[in-house]
Amino acid sequence: MHELGIVFYIIRDVKKAAQEHGVEHVSAVVMNIGEVSTIVPEYLTDCWRWAADKEELLRGCELKIEPIPAVTHCDGCGKEYPTVAHGKICPHCGSEKTWLLRGNEVEIKELIIEN
Amino acid sequence: MENVKIIEIKKSVFENNDRAADELRGELKTKGVFLLNLMSSPGSGKTTTLIQTINRLKDKIRIAVMEADIDSDVDAIKIKEATGVESIQLHTGGMCHLDAEMTEQGLNNVSMEQADLVILENVGNLVCPAEFDTGAVKNAMILSVPEGHDKPLKYPLMFSICDVVVINKIDVLPYFDFDMEKCKEYIHMRNPKATVIPICAKTGEGVEVFAEWLLNEVSEWKR
Ligand SMILES: Nc1nc2c(ncn2[C@@H]2O[C@H](COP(=O)(O)OP(=O)(O)OP(=O)(O)O)[C@@H](O)[C@H]2O)c(=O)[nH]1
Ligand SMILES: [Mg+2]
Ligand SMILES: [Zn+2]
User: Fold this and answer.
1) What is the Cα–Cα distance from B144 to B149, expressed in whole angstroms?
2) CB distance A4–B94 less than 8 Å?
3) What is the pLDDT of chain A when averaged over all its residues?
4) What is the ipTM of this complex?
5) Architecture of the structural domain at B13-222
6) How far is A113 from chain B, CA to nearest CA, in Å?
């Protein structure tokens, strides 16, 4: 399953950062997830719950997801438009020469430590 | 009062893997080994195409194969029986893709000093393998006719990272409304540099073009 693999990558990175900062427990991990990143947020948080609770450092740690809306740029007319609503055909001029400006992110934004 | 601290990370989850992949490519360059990452949906014809291709190349260069599968070794055995080249099985442990670290572990189990070309048959899937750089020198994918010519629109990332797109099962073109020209157009929209090669892995038609492409790439890499 795709999301589970991603969770293992997140855990690896979080462990490393926690060690560098001498942190013993992380309360929340904040992710930036692009709207068209192929990640399903609910699956990601489900997998997270299962895997994170196996780690001392992450027991009860919440995975917070901040979505990033996807935006496409059109080379035909130079305008931008929301990707999910219109797909790859520009709603302004009908051109197919378009590319994704943002919305593909799978990024760890920050760790929240409470004590 | 509770004390809250925020540690900013701002880092893509893929960053570590991208670095590991670059390191692996450097190592392969030093050793003079070319690694091809072959991807497709399940059943598009990766194993059949590999057998045909290897049998055309095995007298010219030394080849080894790594078969990635979630949990079986039928493909590794098939390759070994049909071509005689070294072929090992990598289990991904339930994972839907291979990353650079798993690829490197796999490479440690093939005789790299005795190979010019190592081919990795990735897990059948058009989404996940596209996001994880394996450290391969080139990426190839197979799209088969029954899957439809609109796949490049649905899986743009996969098509954008592939250096070559093999279109397989052209023998069944008469039975599907697959539009070859449209397909090429869609592929080039996502990736203007992609080489497109139509083949029939079942009969071997067109396979020599792919074999030639591969042979060229290998000798470029070893220069
Ligand atoms: N008609 C036709 N069938 C083909 C062709 N190439 C492969 N096949 C058939 O397609 C099926 C799948 O082929 P494989 O080579 O096993 O495909 P694969 O991509 O390795 O499959 P997985 O490893 O399971 O993802 C087999 O039944 C092949 O005989 C072709 O050119 N034409
Ligand atoms: Mg196979
Ligand atoms: Zn436009």
Assistant:
1) 9
2) yes
3) 93
4) 0.86
5) 3-Layer(aba) Sandwich (3.40)
6) 5
